[in-house]
Amino acid sequence: MARRATPEVNAGSMADIAFLLLIFFLVTTTIEKDKGIARQLPPREPPTDEQVKIKEKNLFIVNVNRSDQLLVEEKLMELKDIRQAAIAFLDNGGAPSGTAEYCSYCKGNRNPESSDNPDKAVISVQNDRLTSYKMYIAVQNELVAAYNFLRDRESERLYGWKFTEKSKDLDEGKIKGEAAKEALQEKLETVQKLFPQKLSEAEPKKSGQ
Amino acid sequence: MSKFRKKKSNELPAVNTASLPDIVFMLLFFFMVVTVLREDNLLVQNKLPKADQVEKLKKDRSVYIYAGKPSSRYQEKYGSEAKIQIGDKYTDITNIKFALTEARQKLLPELQDKVMVALKVDEDTNTGMVTDIKQELRDLNMLKIIYITTPGNEISQ
Hints:
Chain A is α/β, with parallel strands linked by helices and 209 residues long.
């Protein structure tokens, strides 16, 4: 028996097969892009008679009605103006200098009629049950933007980088090494303490109530 | 001198395509690795609102809740009233607790305490429905939520 050499497999169609598979995966791929606004809900606590007292001037009331109109501090407002209004309120620092509540890093108008300091300032959002979710998110987004603007400003003053950029880096795992992570976390918390996010949400009223 | 001229030919040499399969395979493997096949079959319309002050969602510890009007092909059967979907089926507001506990049990045991609820709600839904969901979540003590959005900004439109 003469030994026959095995004929070579023709690999010419390999590229075609691979292309087919490639196109299949290209079509079915959805690159994950789930991002959003994170929130912590208040825990259910047994009802108490104790009322937390917040001074009127430390409260920034945003009211959204059923036709998606905004009432901010009893004035009608456009969505685009709410960010500036919130920044002005948070950054006001109305407490007189020398008192314990004095805010040394605030750059606002120091209007005694508005918030004492960022720690005291509370933003309260009240929605109607018929407010659209789109508007709800848009308002929340603007308010978070106001906080982020102020935190960026403070972190640039203290450390020379932007709060939002660094916290994003931390989220995406761009910071290497445990020690570096902890050091950054600590700095981020310092900035957070300067402008703590105090967004409260009132239970929505039924339309007409 | 004419010795050298001999080699010159006027035809262009064909491009060697022998490495083409390798390149295609590399791309193929890339896409095979990054592909995540859709887990839930969407039963509701899901046009997410826009926001730009966002954080990333940690996928391994999240439970999804969808809400919105039923998709057009289901509207005949289920009407056009906004509905909640958890997993692969519609859920009633009173049934949410059960469905969520079930969904939580599918996560890794060590992450079940750190569970994050991702709300994928259609932008035309009423806030009232979202509030109802949040109240149920508070009862369940699942306090970390995230409103999933798409990049963009409502104002610049």
